[in-house]
C-alpha cells in the first residue's frame, strides 16, 4: 500500500544532507515478493536506502542511479503508533528528554560551502594556488573533520584525495535529528513513524561505515521496534567503537522493549541519555559490567527495578549527575556515592529516597513528583543522612513529601535540635498550598531546619477547596527570626494575590533583615486577563509592609514566557547558580 501524503520530512529530505538516496534493486525485488511479514518484525533489507558518499568512502561499488522516492512503498515493516497519539504524558516526558540533550560539540552555523569559499580566497591571497590545508598532518585534519556536522564531514572527501579517508577515522560526532531541518528549528520535534525510514538507514550506514571512535552519538528519531536484531547490532557497533557521549532514545508504545544489555560493554562512556526502554536485568550481567568513566546519566521514561538503579550507581564510580525523568515505576533509592553532586527527580512517583552517604552531593532537586504508586497513598519520605555539602534543595511539597533528618521526622510539632539542622543549604524551594492549613503548619518547622538559606523560592499551588486562612500572627508565632535571618532573595512563583500569600510576604518583609530582592512571578490565569485596577488592588498590600531591611528597594515582577517551566539540563549543570529561576521579563515596581 502506498504511503499517504506526508506532512513531515520524508526520505527525500535526506537528499539535501547525504546526497541522492537510492533504492537497492535487489532489495526492491525482494520487497515485491515478500508481502506482509507475519512475524511483525521488519527486514529493513527489503527497503534499503543507500548513501552514495558512505559507500564510496567504504570502497564499495558505485550505487545504482537515484530515483524519486515520493511514491516510495514499503512492506514488512512493523507499524508502531506515535507516542503522542497513544500517551500524551509520555510524549511530554520525551520532550523534556530531548531538551535535556547536550549540545553536540559541532556547529552547523558555518556550512562547508562557506568554509571552502574562504579557503579558496585564502589561497588566492597567497597567489600561488597551493592547497596548504591538505598538507597539514592527519591528526590535525581529523580534528577539523570531527568538529563538522556529519553531512559536512562526509563531504570533505570531495575536497581532495588527501581528505578521502579522513572522515572514516576521525572521531565521529553524529545526531540523527541534525539530518532534519525541522529538528534543528525545534529541538523537541520528531518525525512520525512513516517518515523515519531514511533516518533509520542513515544511522545504520554511518555506524557500519565509520571506523570509530565515536565521540558523540545521539540517536533519538528512530522507532527501534522496527528491527530488534538490527538495534542489537547498532549497540554492539557503538560499544566496539568506543563511544564517549551517547543518547539512545526509543520511540515505541507501549514502553516494554528491552534495552540491549550490550550497553554495558560501552566502558568508555562519559555521558549517557537513554529513554523509553525497559532496563535489562542487571542480575544476569557479568561482574565486570561497569561504567568506569561515566559522569552524567539521564534516565527518561524507563521501566526498571530498584536493584537495577542501585546496580547503576554501584558500577559508576565517578558519576556526578543523575537525572530521572518520568520513571514508569516508583523511584526508591538509598544513595551511597562518594562522587555524585546532583540528584534530580522529575515527573515521577517517589517511594523512599534516602541520602545515606553522599559527601559530595550539592543538589537534591524534585520537580512535579507524586506520591508513591505502590504501598498505599503515603507520603514520599526524603531522608537526609550524611550530605555535608548539600547546598540546594527543592521543590519540597509538604502535602507529598515527608522530611527526615537523621533519625528525626520533621512534623509541625517536632522539637528541633542541632542534629536536625542542615546548615549547608543556601537555596531552598517549596511548593505550598497557602489555603490548606494542615500543610502550612509544617512549613515553619521545615524552615527551622535550614537557618542559612539565602535564596528562598515558594511556589503557590492552586487549591480547589480551601480549608482555612493563615494570618500574619500565625507566621509571627511559629517562625522565629532565626528562620529567615539570612534570606536575601525571596521569589514567589505562581502568585495569585490572595490574603494568605500576602500574610507570608508581609511576615518575610518584617523579619528578613537582610532581604534585598522580592521577586513576584504572577500566575498566568490570575493576572494576564485581569484589569489594571484589579492588578493594582492585588499589589496594594505590598505598599503597607514595614520592611526591616534597609537594602530592600524594589519589588520585581517577572512574567513567564518560557514554553517549559523547568530545565533538567540547567538543574544538572552545577555551574548554573539557581535553576529555579525561570526565563522571565522584568517589570520593576517601586515600593
Automatic annotation (TrEMBL):
Natural source organism: Eragrostis curvula (weeping love grass)
This protein's name: F-box domain-containing protein
Taxonomic classification: Eukaryota, Viridiplantae, Streptophyta, Embryophyta, Tracheophyta
InterPro entries with a match to the protein in the record: F-box-like_dom_sf (IPR036047), F-box_dom (IPR001810), F-box_dom-containing (IPR055302), FBD (IPR006566), LRR_dom_sf (IPR032675), LRR_FXL15/At3g58940/PEG3-like (IPR055411)
F-box domain mapped to chain residues: 130-177
Taxonomic superkingdom: Eukaryota
Coiled coil: none
Ranges of biased composition (kind: Polar residues): 24-45
PROSITE patterns found in the cross-reference section: FBOX (PS50181)
Stretches the record annotates as Disordered: 1-45
Pfam families assigned: F-box, FBD, LRR_At5g56370
Amino acid at each position: 500500500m502506498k504511503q499517504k501524503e506526508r506532512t513531515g520530512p520524508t526520505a527525500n529530505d535526506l537528499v539535501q544532507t547525504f546526497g541522492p538516496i537510492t533504492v537497492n534493486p535487489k532489495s526492491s525485488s525482494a520487497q515485491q515478493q515478500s508481502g506482509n511479514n507475519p512475524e511483525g518484525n521488519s527486514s529493513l533489507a527489503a527497503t534499503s536506502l543507500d548513501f552514495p558518499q558512505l559507500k564510496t568512502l567504504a570502497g564499495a561499488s558505485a550505487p545504482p542511479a537515484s530515483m524519486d522516492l515520493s511514491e516510495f512503498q514499503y512492506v514488512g515493516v512493523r507499524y508502531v503508533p506515535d507516542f503522542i497519539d497513544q500517551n500524551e504524558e509520555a510524549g511530554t516526558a520525551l520532550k523534556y528528554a530531548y531538551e535535556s540533550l547536550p549540545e553536540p560539540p559541532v556547529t552547523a552555523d558555518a556550512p562547508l560551502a562557506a568554509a571552502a569559499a574562504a579557503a579558496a580566497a585564502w589561497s588566492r591571497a597567497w597567489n600561488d594556488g597551493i592547497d596548504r590545508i591538505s598538507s597539514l598532518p592527519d591528526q590535525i585534519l581529523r580534528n577539523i573533520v570531527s568538529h563538522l556536522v556529519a553531512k559536512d564531514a562526509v563531504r570533505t572527501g570531495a575536497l581532495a584525495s588527501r581528505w578521502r579517508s579522513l572522515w572514516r577515522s576521525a572521531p565521529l560526532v553524529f545526531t540523527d535529528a541534525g539530518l532534519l531541518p525541522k529538528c534543528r528549528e525545534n529541538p523537541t520535534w520528531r518525525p512520525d513513524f512513516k517518515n523515519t525510514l531514511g533516518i533509520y538507514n542513515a544511522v545504520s550506514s554511518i555506524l557500519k561505515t565509520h571506523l570509530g571512535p565515536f565521540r558523540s552519538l545521539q540517536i533519538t528519531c528512530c522507532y527501534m521496534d522496527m528491527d530488534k536484531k538490527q538495534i542489537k547490532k547498532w549497540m554492539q557497533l557503538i560499544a566496539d567503537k568506543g563511544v564517549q557521549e551517547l543518547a539512545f532514545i526509543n520511540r515505541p508504545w507501549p514502553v516494554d522493549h528491552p534495552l540491549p544489555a550490550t550497553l554495558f560493554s560501552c566502558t568508555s562512556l562519559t555521558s549517557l541519555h537513554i529513554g523509553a526502554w525497559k532496563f535489562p536485568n542487571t542480575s544476569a550481567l557479568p561482574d565486570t559490567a561497569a561504567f568506569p568513566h561515566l559522569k552524567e546519566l539521564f534516565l527518561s521514561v524507563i521501566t526498571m527495578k530498584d536493584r537495577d538503579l542501585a546496580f547503576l550507581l554501584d558500577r559508576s564510580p565517578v558519576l556526578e549527575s543523575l537525572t530521572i525523568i518520568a520513571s514508569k515505576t516508583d523511584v526508591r533509592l538509598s544513595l551511597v556515592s562518594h562522587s555524585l553532586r546532583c540528584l534530580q527527580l522529575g515527573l515521577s512517583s517517589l517511594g523512599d529516597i534516602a541520602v545515606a552517604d553522599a559527601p559530595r552531593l550539592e543538589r537534591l532537586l524534585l520537580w512535579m513528583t507524586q506520591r508513591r504508586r505502590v504501598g498505599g497513598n503515603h507520603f514520599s519520605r526524603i531522608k537526609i543522612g550524611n550530605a555535608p555539602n548539600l547546598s540546594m534543595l527543592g521543590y519540597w511539597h509538604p502535602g507529598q513529601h515527608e522530611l527526615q533528618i537523621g533519625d528525626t521526622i520533621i512534623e509541625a510539632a517536632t522539637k528541633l535540635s542541632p542534629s536536625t539542622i542542615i546548615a549547608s543549604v543556601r537555596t531552598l524551594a517549596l511548593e505550598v498550598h497557602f489555603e490548606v492549613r494542615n500543610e502550612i503548619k509544617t512549613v515553619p518547622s521545615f524552615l527551622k531546619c535550614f537557618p542559612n538559606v539565602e535564596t528562598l523560592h515558594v511556589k503557590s499551588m492552586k487549591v480547589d477547596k480551601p480549608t482555612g486562612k493563615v494570618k500574619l500572627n500565625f507566621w509571627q508565632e511559629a517562625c522565629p527570626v532565626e528562620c529567615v535571618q539570612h534570606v536575601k532573595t525571596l521569589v514567589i512563583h505562581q502568585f495569585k494575590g490572595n490574603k494568605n500569600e500576602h500574610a507570608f510576604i508581609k511576615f518575610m518583609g518584617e523579619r528578613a533583615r537582610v532581604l534585598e530582592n522580592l521577586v513576584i512571578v504572577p500566575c498566568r490565569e490570575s493576572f494576564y486577563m485581569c484589569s489594571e485596577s484589579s492588578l493594582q488592588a492585588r499589589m496594594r498590600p505590598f505598599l503597607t509592609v514595614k520592611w526591616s531591611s534597609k537594602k530592600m528597594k524594589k519589588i520585581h515582577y517577572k512574567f513567564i514566557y518560557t514554553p517549559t517551566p523547568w530545565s533538567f539540563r540547567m538543574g544538572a549543570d552545577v555551574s548554573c547558580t539557581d535553576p529555579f529561576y525561570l526565563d522571565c521579563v522584568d517589570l520593576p515596581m517601586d515600593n
